[in-house]
Amino acid sequence: MSSTIFFQKYTDPNNNDNILCDKQVLIDFIHSNTQTKSKRGRPKKPPNTFVMWKNDNMDTLKSYFKDYDTIKDWSKQSKIDYYNFKEIGIPKKDGKPKLVELITIKAGIIWNTVEQHVKNKYELKRDNAIKNFNTPRIKINIKDSWIGPYHNKEISKKVKKDGKIIPNYKEHTLNEIIDIADNMGNLCGGITETSNGKYSLRFGELVDKQNVCSWIKKDYVYKPTKSKRGRPKKPVQYESDSDNESLLEQEKMIVTSVTYNGLEYYHNESTNYIYEPISGDIVGIYDNGNIQLY
Predict the structure, then answer these.
(1) pTM (whole model) above 0.85
(2) Higher pLDDT, 245 or 204
């Protein structure tokens, strides 16, 4: 709960605008705000190998476009000529491009030609960074009907509503998510805090995963659905944040920088996936010129 919402909810205009609430409500509010501040200051998840290489070679990448500020004519044909001269394909939209977009396109093209031993070096660099990555968490008082935290454990399956996975929660506190989970009954067995600090409603079994944390309803028992007799079905693939971990490196890297709601993302033109530039996680899809985040 934000400070604004808290004050609106518990300020009593009939009592000199004093704050009136239960002691436990105030304790939970203080804990939740302390948790939010700690998240802002905690280490960021190490970027993927492409971003590491791109950052290390930024000066070289910028040098390809040292004439950028001198270009005054960004009409359609002039822009096509510029892109051809820089060997970065065909522009997807009209108007003056952002320098970061040109650099990202060029970086993706060069990355495809980088020798494997160089990529191996960055894979090792990222592996070491992941090992040193630690996400501190403050212990929060939660309901007696819940148990946890389980560090480096995630609950295996994401809760769905109307056939669609419920998006992760970012602005809510843990206790607010617990209330949401309780209202869902047996559909939700617990909560997993992902490596980027978001809360995900889950059900299933606890499985190992680094840099996450989970809480479970004390009375929750997971009962896997039994398969019907007859021809065996193919295993169901459940979505997991780890599934996206290395896709950015595995797929053909032809990317452009796109901006959505003031934030920069990467668009892989061969798959139309939208990536978060730091972690490399898939966060949406590019559909007919529109960005749709999950």
Answers:
(1) no
(2) 204
